[in-house]
Predict the structure of Glycosyltransferase RgtA/B/C/D-like domain-containing protein.
Amino acid sequence: MRKIEIILIAAILVIGLAVRLYKIDRPVADWHSWRQADTAAVARNFIKEGYNPFIPRYDDMSSQANGLDNPNRYRFVEFPVYNSIIAAVWSITGINDAMARLVTVFITLGSTGLLYLVVRNFSDWQTATISAFFFAIIPYNVFYSSAILPGPLMVFFLLALYLSFVNWLKEQKLIFALFSVLFANLAILTWPIAIFFSLPLFYLAVDRFGKDILKKPSLFIIAFLSIVPFIAWRVWMSQFPEGIPNWQFLLNEGNIRFRGAFFRWLIVERLGGLILSVTGFAVFALGVLIKPKSKEKLFYHFWLGSLLLYFIVFASGNVRHDYYQVPAIPILAVFLAKGAGFLFKLPSEYFLQVVGKITAILLIIFTLAFGFFEVRGFYWVNNPAIIEAGKAVDKLIPKDATVIASYQGDAAFLYQTNRHGYPVVDRPLEQFIKEGTEYFASIDVDDEGIKSLSAHCDVVEKTEKYVILKLFTECIGK
């Protein structure tokens, strides 16, 4: 690696770190707070209750995840690799939202370097550098790489897998095969949709071995060992059905796949709006159209194809949740780099090169400006009252008490209370009391039902923003 490459990558990493420090200390009450709270709660309970990654627990005892009561608070989704890392950091620093966000930040900075190395294997150093640059500063990626979500860690492991597998194909050394298996396992366990992104690896293997691929048992051993732990995890978690959220709706809820709304949401709203903006999408499209160089062959296009396959299979998930597009950022950054590189090097016999350079710079500036405009609201604390009410609950009610912190099913309010309980009223209040939950916290102080409860039940604390009540059977329904 030349000196100029080292300097540029170092500069990109510094810039990437600097922009991610924006509101790094915001509480878990920003965009997608419900998912962040669930993720952070698992890590926090590892600290409070002892570390057992095979039985992860969060704070929600309700039935809203799948219709089954969950008094043990089981949380069986992805294997808690990411949560374990946060818990390890918190065991040193203490439980702190900013430190959890910094975990994601440094994971993403690592991914920036890995993306550079992966692209450098197939393209020139300029394309690799520009790819890393886009990955580091796309505003959508800046926000989600300071969120408490497992997606960025999956991206890190996936890029590490690509790099390891490429090196194994080159040198056929056992160490690279072992690293490939390790990172494949970690990627899939961290977020199972990583399985979709094995398509580029299959392409590389076929391109390397051709018809002799069937004579390479090592390939099949790598593939087998890469999926066995995930299968074992799925078998294990099936013993805890109350802790497995419904997920089938993420596939094709409302038969949205291939309908107009499907294309509109993914192309216009997400890729052409939130993530790349209209200017960045134009540069990306140009990059896709450029003929691959000799070393690249179709690797990038198979990578893009795996992304499209993921979009199609998890159609409603990608329409419903914008954080589902986090795995798209690396390959989008690569094609952005190819498109921008072409504009910077337009052939002089057909184009005015100076105009091409100016156009490229303006498009990049607009992409970043429009992107920040789209995501700036993601950082906002949507309802500061849940922070104040949560602190009051943590101060005023017993540490071992469970609490109803109703917030339309969003566990962010419950998370702020530092208690287990219910983020939704999913049963009669009398049943809550019978099951041992006597405390009720609400920020809907003007609601008639809350006013009635406040008038007849024991008021622990009441302000203009929230009320904390202790319930008893006789005060219900009056």
Observations:
- Residues 385-475 form one domain.
- Residues 97-120 form the longest helix (24 residues).
- The first strand starts at residue 403 and ends at 405.
- The chain has a mean pLDDT of 95.
